[in-house]
Protein: Putative methyltransferase
Amino acid sequence: MPLCFLSPRLPPPPLITCRVSQSSLRTLLPSPSPSPSPPPSPSSLSLSLSPNSTPPPSLTCALHCPHFELCSGCTHEFNLHRPAIVDEATKFFKSLGLSDFSFDSCKLWGWRCRAKLAVRGSSEHPLIGLYQEGTHNIVDIPDCKAHHPNINAAVELLKKGITALRIEPYDEDEGTGDLRYVQMAVTTYSTSLPAAERYRNGKVQVSLVWNSRNETSPNSEKLQALANFIWRNGGPRNNVHLIHSVWANFQTSSNNIIFGNRWRHLLGERDFWEHVGGIDISLAPSSFGQANTRAFDTLLRKLQRYVPLGASVADLYAGAGVIGLSLAATRKCRSVRCIEINKESKLSFEKTVDRLPNIVDSSISWHHADTSKEPLSWIMGSDVLVVDPPRKGLDASLVDALRSISSIKDKARSSSESSSSKEKDEKRPWMLRAREDSIQIGSKMTSEDSKMLPKTLIYISCGWESFKEDCEDLLSSKGWRLEKAHGFNFFPGTQSIEVLAVFKRGQSVNPKKKKSGKKKKRL
Ligand SMILES: C[S@@+](CC[C@H](N)C(=O)[O-])C[C@H]1O[C@@H](n2cnc3c(N)ncnc32)[C@H](O)[C@@H]1O
Structure:
């Protein structure tokens, strides 16, 4: 089998890139680090622009993707470094009294390190990509500019395998065919490479979603043959080692849910490590992982500034606990509780905990639970609450609990006392399940801790519309005030941004009123 298709892939050439002049580069780049490093390519620049300033035309950054308009992935072609929604966000926060909303623009191309792609067409002409807007037609996107280049290289390799082995892509109408979807996730963390080369040389974890119940179903030998093909032609024995590992997921349902419940590790390394927020994190293919690794790292480092040293933290919608564990390590937290509905994330959490530096001495726990049920039990017991919900925003019951938090202040003692009496005779099935699936590392929270109410709420949002609603709901309760907000360019080419908003409990003290109060006293 000729292997010429596996030529080394470099990041996409700067077709049209930001036309950054040397002088503007000097003003935009951070001051040089003590150890000299090569100058970054324009595509790896991280620009921090004041949202109030209109970007100079010389910074107009274009996507220049051949699939634009056909594929539903990107909706905007120009000004990738500053989506128009930043103006709306700036106005929104200004109307709430915040005039220093900042926006960090990270990598503009090749930023996507995690992609779920549909596999359709035929074995002779496989199509691997996204749905065309409003249809069930798949657009093949071999030259996607958002993908890490090695995702595109792995897709090319997969197509070769499908054709060579006559694998039938899934047919939605008939429910026939073998390969339904593929998830490609890139790890950019290889300590055997110099730091500057790690991103470019990321390795791809390939998860094949197979249309059968399990690995003993008919056609499973084809699955193994495809995995072998990918590993033989992209694994460590090749000039270019592209593939990290191959996994299978089994799914036979006729709905649109991508993954089934059954996962099998087939080839390569089982553990997938990344380094973000100052720690090594493990991510199983079944666990939630952020698509934009670099931008997530930027966000985590900013988030850490808002968490006092020694704080106790609850991380709600925690996935594999990346946020909470990053805080445990960098902010020396007294305790960290992670709450997550997907129990598949538990294993990744445990592996990450095992690799935390020895100096981390927090009480750490992970709970398999639905935050919308008994939200107060998750809110109480921490001084910092971090929420990172899916695009649809916070569950209504959690918003209600957060809104009511000032009025429950005085009841905290009795409610926690009653919760400890409930412990003896707990019957609620979701609480019992949560306990069974929970992990506790280090000592448990003391009963004194469990009475605590959060002073800080950190809201991380990928859904702008739902965030605005939740934010207004929280502020209208007068129980919370907004202190800071930052935006991050997590999804260049779209009108979505990631927002980090910091709320403080209680109303701000009006300094004028305070003064007049003092005067009265003197009289
Ligand atoms: C945007 S992800 C954030 C994950 C994690 N914070 C991270 O950055 O890796 C949202 C997470 O919320 C979880 N989730 C969704 N609804 C939930 C609920 N009602 N209770 C607990 N977790 C939930 C999802 O399974 C997913 O892992």
About this structure: The chain has two domains: 114-274, 287-505. Residues 1-47, 410-423, 514-523 have pLDDT under 50 and may be disordered. The domain at 287-505 is CATH 3.40.50.150 (Rossmann fold). Residues 288, 290, 317-319, 322-323, 339-342, 370-372, 388-390, 395, 462 surround S-adenosylmethionine (CB under 6 Å).
